[in-house]
Amino acid sequence: MDTTLTVNDLQTQFATRAGLVKAVDQVSFSVKRGEIMGLVGESGSGKSMTGYSIMGLIDAPGKIVAGEILLQGSDLRSLPAEAMRKIRGNRIAMIFQDPMMTLNPVLRIDTQMMEAVRAHQDVSRMVAREMSREALVRVGIPSPDERLQAYPHQFSGGMRQRVAIAIALLNQPDLIICDEPTTALDVTIQGQILYEMQKLCRESGTALIWITHDLSVVAGLADTVAVMYAGRIVESGTVQQVLEHPRHPYTHGLIASAPSRNPRGQPLQQIPGMTPSLLNLPEGCAFRTRCAHATVECAQTPQLREVEQRMLRCWHPLRDNVVEAVS
Amino acid sequence: MEPTPARNMAETPWQRFVRNFFGSRIATAGFVLLALIVLAAIFAPVISPQNPYDLAKLDVMDSRLEPGQASVDGSMTYLLGTDDQGRDMLSAILYGIRISVMVGVLSTVIALSLGLTLGLLAGYAGGRIEAFIMRVADIQLSFPPILIALILLALTGRGIDKIVIALVAVQWAYYARTTRSAALVERKKEYIEAATALGLSPLRIMFRHLLPNCLPPLIVVAALQVASAISLEATLSFLGLGLPITEPSLGLLIANGFQYLLSGKYWISVFPGIALLATVVTINLVADQLRDVLNPRLQTQ
After folding, report:
1. Which CATH fold topology does A3-91+171-246 show?
2. Does the ipTM surpass 0.85?
3. Among A174, A272, B1, B53, whose CB has the most other CB atoms within 10 angstroms?
4. For A2-41, what is each residue's pLDDT tens digit?
5. What's the whole-model pTM score?
6. Sheet holding A92-95, edge to edge
7. Interface of A with B (CB under 8 A)
């Protein structure tokens, strides 16, 4: 399998008045053709910023200061702005969290879809319309001809997210970045959309980065997973390895916090403490102030290294018996 | 999954707008009166009893006749009297409204196009472009409008084109400001981010995506500005700096009768004054209702 996207040592920083915020710090991962990668973390962990960095959508005062973003081998960071614009929506598409907000309220669906096609392909309006219709059919929207002529407010949330997915699929991108696309939806509709996305990726070979804070979605949908904490990837590998045998205390805490894993009647598990402010991170491992296993060693920044078929950024990897004992 | 039936699927946005707009009696009355005024202005050459600019038709013997009096030769009745050259006031007012409304609308359309383009650019691009455009607008707005118009007209002279330029120079900053503040709100919304993520060109995002969402406040400001442009033009013409005597607008007509006002010949000034008042008030009524209907926060349903 060939690699669609490789991110090497990506660093995105925001120079704010209060100080330098390292929103994305030394992030590295790769996604293969047709593969789904879950990018997991709490709010403010830098997972969305990683997505925006790949799209080249970081606005001032933010800036990508280092690293490579290789789309099928060519570095996106070295591209001029105009060339990058040709890649957005064409070879890399993005789906956003709130389907109520991502469609322009005053434009009809056909207008919005056709312009997405015609921004990247030199086709007639008729052809663009037909392609839009087909895309709506592919994401399971009934009576597409009628729906093309509707305005966004005439759609329910789930339908709008389907339209957003259809728009992302229009130009058959190599990679789709989904920024919590099902967070705002009912679980039943979330299930349908996850199923459709998985099917579409398998069929078309599109790689998918699924940004979410919901581990159960990742467990069901993704092939690989990367867990982010305070701008860094702390653990990444296959879903099976990472979610069933977590080695980083944070990953373990995250899994243990899922209410469904809690024995009935017992107090719910939680990770003690608060997510640290990115302006004021602890020295060394950012998680050490909340970690039960932290020692003096943790004041040194741990490097990402390969441990038991995964990449891990921790001085004291958990062992399976520890995991069992705690959970 | 069945598509959720949209609310009021049968009612298009336009139909709802019309229903809301005519929900108020005052606004409906204002709209009807304004429509009559505009129609009268458009068809002035057809409905006027006399061509007020054809000096050959004027009879000095008819000068300063009271309203309702017949002409000396008995050929017509002057419903609103005559001015000091024997011109039928009704005809002069109809032609005056025509010029006033035309100047008001023309200057508003030009100022709107200019102001919204600059405001959109400022709101979308930000940074130095925004700072430059908005500082120029601030400086412009810190002067009284009439002062700027007076200076420009004093430099350029009289004429319809010149007064339109002066009015545009005064008005563009309002549109630029309104557009920018609306654009600043809209550009933070996700659909603009989504459009950027689709790789659409900046011009397309500005005019196709940003602009339509900024329109409601602009329509209201534009409607109000037509009224203020008409008043400003009348003021300038009254002061003798606006339109030339060959193209008398309402302001010039008022000025013409001003000297006779104290001698009891009220009609030469008062009737054009009433016409001006009616035009401006009805435009304001319509604009107020537009603001209520187009402002989502004030909508009752």
Report:
1. Rossmann fold (3.40.50)
2. no
3. A174
4. 889 999 999 999 988 888 888 899 999 999 998 999 999 8
5. 0.79
6. A92-95, A175-179, A207-212, A36-40, A224-229, A232-238, A311-312, A305-306
7. 55, 57, 60, 85-90, 93-94, 96-98, 101-107, 115-116, 119-120, 140-143, 147, 150-151, 153-156, 158-159, 164, 167, 189, 192
